[in-house]
Amino acid sequence: MNTNLDLFPEDIRPHIIPSPKGDMYYKCLGCGAEYGIEELLYVCPACNQVLLIHDRNKDRLKAIPGETWQRIFDYRKMLKIPALKGIYRYHEFIGPSIPLESIIYLGEGHTPMIEANTVLQEKTGLKFYYKNDGQNPSASFKDRGMASALSSIKYLIDQGLVSKVISVCASTGDTSASAALYASYLGSQVKSAVLLPHKKVTSAQLAQPLGSGARVFEIPGVFDDCMKVVEHLSSSYPVALLNSKNAWRILGQESYSYEIAQDFDWDMDKKVVMVPIGNAGNISAVMNGFLKFYNIGIINKLPKIIGVQSEHADPVYKYYLEPDESKREFTPVQTQPSVAQAAMIGNPVSMPRVIQIAREYDAASGHKNVFVVQVKEQQIMDWQLTANQNGHITCTQGGECLAGMVQAKALNIVDENETVILDATAHAIKFSGFQDLYFKGELSDAYGISSDSQFINLPDFVSPDDPELIPSQEKPLGSSQFQEFVKDVSKKIAIRLGL
Question: Is the pLDDT of residue 2 over 60?
């Protein structure tokens, strides 16, 4: 697509359309070994630890002042080049080695940030926003990482380094939907297989990978069990792993941080970002993204980061309960049923990333700036319904974030002088089954949730008393009868509305 560069300021014109300049490599978080990106790699071949992706040429980014980077990204909004309309607006920080023609764009990224209404802000005593990542193509934040992971695979295919890829992932629902969608866009080049815990994903989430043509395998157990099978497959067979163990996923999810910074005109002072933890990939990415922008001078403050976990899946919260870092020991937990189903993970694969990046984040901040809070299932459900009844479209993980913000305020981790950004990770419709069960009072006792009448909202059935005035497709009413039907039903509704 042609772009008239003459319309852009002369000093940033050479940087508006990026070209591949990075020298990217995998680095092991355990032994520090380094590997090229020319192969499908997910853990260190030497010690089996997780990897992060670095750029040996990252110092070149410092040659451009932070304020100039701000203008580059602001002016890049004007471009009509598909590869630069999504997360790769920040190409130099996400995939600097990837040429634009290898980038997949399905409409992901740049999701809206909606300020809470007056009722919610008064109720919580805080100014806050929801960033609606459920408005990504597959209706969850996973599309950020998947756009990056599948673009990296397309790059390897375009370079003739791999062919006929089979991608695999374990999922609580959102990852499988995203992986299947992005793989299907590449047609016969990538075939998708997903593993789901049997009867532990919502019907809407199960429908998504099936609709995208993926092979779906349901197995007994929970997500952690699926993950072990996928890890075995990826270490034993030539497949592409698409869980957050894939370091490219982390890169793509860093875009969440970049967008928040840009939406606040690069001012991160007195900002707080709340993230549900789950498999710990997203909170790792959010911290890493802000660190990159801070180190280059694009932002001059690091926002406070608060991770949230349900009491039914809280291994990271328990790890950080020990104040002495030298005494901390990570122990996986056996999860219990949670309405924040996408975060119901007892052994997050990105825990080593969280530990290292959180340490770096606190050090760069000059003080403790990463926190983890725990919330109850009842709080998650009630706060989600409160948010949705005040103009938001948040999922149960978004409810977990709002509950976490309230808990953080009670613990004096946040105060009224700060602005909080909550992560609504998926669309409310994906988890509407929990709402339905709540309204009907049919949630299993295992969730530990009782239905509060102030939130329950069920349909009223309104019908004429006279059965001869009830219309049907098989027996349409005559004109006069239909008028009687309209008057009868209208009167009953008016009475119920107190008109």
Answer: no
